[in-house]
């Protein structure tokens, strides 16, 4: 099934939808309207540069989550006496 990009002309919501047949038109997930404008779907380009940027962002996110989890665990241990 192809995936198409749409913009709702009523509420300006941008979304993707799987469409079985070209003549089938999905409903807007936000306002349930059918007044949609099909957008040109651009292929996503993967290169060494985009992969490096993605990995850097993922490592930064993971480090932030690890620090938050450590802090949360420390706060829990300080405030809960299991005796």
Report on the architecture of this protein.
The structure is a single chain. The mean pLDDT is 86. The longest helix is centred in the last third of the chain and has 32 residues, at 48-79. The chain has one helix at 48-79, and strands at 3-8, 14-18, 36-39. The protein is an alpha+beta fold and 83 residues long. The N and C termini lie far apart (58 Å). The chain contains one helix and three strands. It has a three-stranded antiparallel sheet with strand order 2-1-3, with no helix packed on it. It is 39% helix and 18% strand. It has two domains: 3-39, no CATH class; 43-83. A hairpin with a 5-residue loop joins strand 1 and strand 2 (14-18).
Summarize the structure.
The chain is α+β, with helices and mostly antiparallel strands and 83 residues long.
Proportion of helical residues: 25-40%
Shape: elongated
Q: Helix tally? A: 1
Report the C-alpha radius of gyration, rounded: 22 Å
Average pLDDT level:
86
Low-confidence stretches: none
C-alpha termini separation: 58 Å
Taken in chain order, the helices and strands follow as EEEH
Instruction: Please give the order of strands in the largest beta sheet.
Output: 2-1-3
Sheet/helix structural class: alpha+beta
Measured by DSSP, the beta-strand proportion falls in 15-25%
Strands, total number: 3
Largest sheet: 3 strands, antiparallel
The count of domains is: 2
């Amino acid at each position: 099934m192809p995936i198409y990009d749409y913009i709702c002309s009523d509420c300006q919501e941008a979304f993707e939808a799987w469409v079985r047949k070209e003549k089938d038109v999905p409903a807007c997930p936000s306002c349930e309207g059918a007044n949609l404008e099909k957008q040109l779907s651009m292929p996503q380009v993967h290169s060494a540069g985009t992969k490096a940027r993605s990995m850097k962002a993922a490592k930064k996110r993971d480090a932030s989550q690890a620090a938050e989890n450590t802090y949360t665990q420390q706060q829990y241990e300080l405030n809960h006496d299991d005796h």
